[in-house]
Target: Phosphoribosylglycinamide formyltransferase
Amino acid sequence: MARTKIAVLISGRGSNLQSLIDAAAEPDFPGEIALVISNRPKAGGLERASKAGISVEVVDHKSFETREDFEAAINHALKTAKVDFICLAGFMRVLTAGFASDWRGRLINIHPSLLPSFEGLHVHERMIQAGVKIAGCTVHFVSADVDSGPIIGQAAVPVLPGDNEEKLAARILEQEHKLYPACLRLLLENKARLLGANVIYDDTVVATGELINPPTN
Ligand code: GAR
Model:
């Protein structure tokens, strides 16, 4: 069976891109990363893609007057590479409602919080300031609003005494690298799918375990 052609859109270092590249290298992975697009010419993730032999495109948002023109250039690159699924991985440009609706059900994102809490920027700092005891990350379908849309999966980690932004970000990032490829696989294998405003799962997909912080025993 032909593997789904995926594009990963990045803006920075690309550690989540790397986790997707590594997952897609497994022989039974149901998708292949056909293209990596960065809106920043110097994004570290571009080198990771090239190293893995994946085509890269830089679509610099600064070269376009409008978001629509910027997205038209992205769409052109996606079409040329025959992409049928998009993963945003640290892509820090807001997409228009039109783009989100054109790619509805085929456009997903990862965000370093348990959405719908703490969308937007400076997430780790804001979580520490708010004193939350459990943090985490979310993979979700992209809808018109920033960091919103039907949730596909979440991973939780404790916030520990003495945590600063860096320590908490590192703890969450470790889970991001597990969660993103796992959610992508579920979607591509049709074990999770979008139904209206929600995501539904096969009976084989069952959660176990719990995280209580501070512990009760
Ligand atoms: C990741 O933590 C990702 O969750 C976050 O940017 C980082 C990118 O790191 N995304 C967002 O905040 C989206 N709103 P990476 O380039 O190493 O994957």
Observations:
- The helical segments are 15-24, 45-51, 67-80, 97-102, 123-130, 165-188.
